[in-house]
Amino acid sequence: MVKAQSRLTSQKTISAKNFTFDGNGETISVTVAQAIVKVLENLGVRQAFGVSGGAMATLWAALSNSPLIQVIHCRHEGGAAFAATEAYFASNRPVVVFTTAGPGITNALTGLLAARDEGAKVIHLSACTSAPQRGRWAIQETSNYTLPQEGIFTSGTLFHEATVLESPKQLPQIARRLALGLAGIGGFVAHISIPTGVQSMPSEIPLPYIYPDVKLSVPSNDTILEVAQLLQDGSFAIWVGFGARHAADLILQLAEITGAAVMCSPRGKGIFPESHPQFVGVTGVGGHESVMQYLHDHSPRHILVLGTRLGEPTSFWSEAMIPPEGFIHVDIDPKVPGVAYPMATTYPVIADVEIFVEALLDALPIKLPQILSFPNPETIEIDTVTEDLDLVRPEVLIEAIQRIIVDGSDALVLAESGNSFTWSTHLLRFDQPHRYRVSTGVGSMGHNVTGVVGAALGRGGKAVAIVGDGAMLMNSEVSTAVKYQVPAVWIVLNDARYNMCYQGMSLLGLTGADATIPQADFAAIANGMGAEGIRLERESDLETVLHQAMAISGPVVIDVCIDPMRLAPSKGRNKSLSVQGIKATKEEKQISFPLV
Known about the structure:
The chain is of the alpha/beta class.
């Protein structure tokens, strides 16, 4: 039923003894820590983010003395894991997270779970308590007496591959498994924990160095022809997700030769140009009414889903999104098609999106498509910027970010969870892939206030994070950016509250909960840590401040005092909560993605 296509051309195994030579030509044994670092170098790792500790001192020294791996010493393990995740997406190279024992591991878990959910390739290198000390109340003891072993130290829900390296003889097996995991399709998150005493053991074990063929499944010719026929039997739309980011040019070609409308998930922004007349909008959190208008007015028979799981952040599971003849759902993961919409007719195609679309283009007849007029994403009308406003309207801020940062530079833009996510997703427009990053699965606050550091280092250039004050107070890694002079910019929407919660509770008619926080001066905090901090209180200063921030080579924090009463485009999220049992007692007009 399937054939395979390889992205690599050869497979070979090179056995290289794990020792070096001194100036006299004598062999010098290396430690287990140095051997595992050599394995990581051979696997293409060039950056490692983490926090040190006594239990992993030998590992930290080995990483720090690597001639190839840049070691970024962070302020919190969670921030290190989020930074590593975004460094992977910016560089397309596997990245290491290093932590000490005990709380070093547990602090990193949320970021590592996000790495897996996002599809990153990250290797967590940690320390644990040596066997003779286990059960004896060691400092930061890491053993089955103190932590659950299943899931953290074994492969499962959190890690694709996880083990405790108890002996140098395990190194060849671990090296092979890491190589195969990293070469595979999709994300790969591994955990190698090395007891403190084992890290300094000598190792002279030959290590395999593997270049495996990567076999990508391609549907049979019959499947391709059947899909092509389904798409020709009536109108269809294309729903693009993050998993299709490497197929941007092919998807543009497919849309233009068929005349299909295109919509995207929040993580899929920019894969299909948002200025294109066939683009009808973003779905899900922060999405556009134009999508629903298109579905109502044009009623496509099928929707071709490319690389999105259609989960709540993308679809809100709205039945209004189900086309009359169902979905044609293409994904590399066989557990994805048909799960988000179990009631809908779904034709599953398990394949790499890029290879599938290329094969589909060959099967479709060449003809001039019918030119239709589609609704395009709505915008917010902005009144004239005036000098006398003492707070910045979020929509005015985002409009300035569009002109100066999105259109005026090649900077990567990241949006944090909360209202910063909805404002940015709804209003910013991207015409290239790999320019916009949000986290929708885990959706942890703190992901991109720290991820921006990894993104800037991973791409070797400017990265800008649009964040809320609540997330910024969690863990921003500004101090880390100062130490390494990372070209990161934080634009903080400062409204002295968790405003998505504040506004959402109000819209749902729920009272009594307090979502306010004391007003913080993030410019002063940034200046105190050695970064450039700028306080912005007037809309008339927006353009000057943004240009200034983009011209500075080191880290910059722009503290924007925004109007907290401007309703963010999150109505669709509130209606999704309502469907799940949280009933609203009042309704207010709001720009968003209407569903229920």
